Amino acid sequence: MSARILTADRPTGKLHLGHYVGSLTNRLSFQDQYQQYVMIADVQALTDYWEDPDLIIKSIYEVGLDYLSVGLDPLKTTFFVQSQIPQLFELTTYFSNLVSKSRLERNPTIKAELEQKSFGSVPMGFFSYPISQAADITLFKATLVPVGEDQQPLLELTNEIVRKFNHLYQTGCLLECQAVLNQRCSRLIGICGQHKASKSLGNAIFLSDPLPIVKEKVFQMYTDPNHIRVSDPGKVEGNVVFAYLDAFHPNSQEVVQWKQEYEKGGLGDVYLKNILYKDLTDLLEPIQERRQRFTVKDVKEILYQGCSVARTVANTAIQEVRQAMKILSFE
Ligand code: TRP
Predict the structure, then answer these.
(1) CB of 235 within 8 A of CB of 227?
(2) Domains of the chain
(3) Other C-beta atoms lying within 10 Å of the C-beta of residue 274
(4) DSSP secondary structure code for residue 84 in this structure
(5) What's the CA gap between 40 and 80, in Å, rounded?
(6) Which of 60, 80, 193, 198 would give a disulfide with 310, using CB separation of 3.0 to 4.6 Å?
(7) Mutate to test the pocket of ligand 1, among 4, 9, 109 (most ligand atoms within 8 A of CB)
(8) Alpha carbon distance 151, 254 (integer Å)
(9) Which residues contact 171 (CB under 8 A, 6 or more apart)?
């Protein structure tokens, strides 16, 4: 049997280019070779959007359409919604015994996210979501997890839990996993140049952004504020346009040459931004065209079927877990 893959996205808005390079491209190539599960993590989304359930419902369908638009295929990939799989929450409860508060506090992903958010006092749900993410991955016995680089510490925590669980309960029923990062670019910077591309920071180009908006965003990208005249030498490091050309321009040799010219002076931002806009148009046009072929009704149907498959898998796995933990059955 081929390896299992599981990944997920939080439905808190539409997917953007950061998702595309971070995980969607890998998922696309994996769906032909592996058993792939892609989950819409609505319960995890509630950990920071608990006050806005309507946004989450809307986003479940948007994210579903985003998946179909990039070419993920329900005949090859199983799509499901986290809240529909109760076994995930059961496993999260068991895992909570195996993780200390200080271990979570030290987790770099959580630390970075807490710095960005302005929680007065951190809600337990948010604080402990890495435990529920470990349950997502292990209940589906996923060994490969295509994610962006920022998620790696969460996978390390998952593996710690797996080792602890298997050792403690003398079982091999949980499997360790491995992150699969995009070789070319595993973390896309936002157009502001300060943080990673993120829905909540409003610095991302969405897969479904109309092309004129894409153009606007490309022309807003942070470059080098000291590169005033075309003839001035410019800085490549921290320059968002180059980060995006690195991620999306089909000819990387050309990008190397442009970087050299830019650093010497003589290459203008507008010239490069036009090239980047063309690259993004070539990428996004077929995606947006495919999106038109699907409706919310199609997404509902696909999720309905996927949830049923996922529940069957989850049910078998949770029985093994309970057995290992000597949890009695009173059925
Ligand atoms: N934390 C992930 C994100 O914000 C979403 C997620 C939930 C996930 N469960 C997962 C990713 C399991 C990989 C595996 O994008």
Answers:
(1) yes
(2) 4-188+296-325 (3.40.50.620), 211-290 (1.10.240.10)
(3) 14
(4) G
(5) 6
(6) 80
(7) 9
(8) 31
(9) 165, 320, 324
Tokens of 227: 């590169």
pLDDT for 242-289, tens place per residue? 999 999 999 999 999 999 999 999 999 999 999 999 999 999 999 999
Using the structure block, give the residue that is written with the tokens 């950990």.
47
Q: Whose CA is nearest to atom 7 of ligand 1?
A: 8
Q: Which of 10, 8, 9, 13 is nearest to 200 (CA)?
A: 13
User: Are 165 and 323 a contacting pair, CB within 8 Å?
Assistant: no
Give the binding-site residues of ligand 1, using a 6 Å CB cut-off. Answer: 6-10, 41, 44, 133, 136-137, 145, 147, 151
Record the pTM: 0.94
Distance 207 CA to ligand 1 centre (A): 19
Model confidence band, residue 1 (pLDDT cutoffs 50, 70, 90):
low
What is the residue with the minimal CA distance to atom 6 of ligand 1? 8
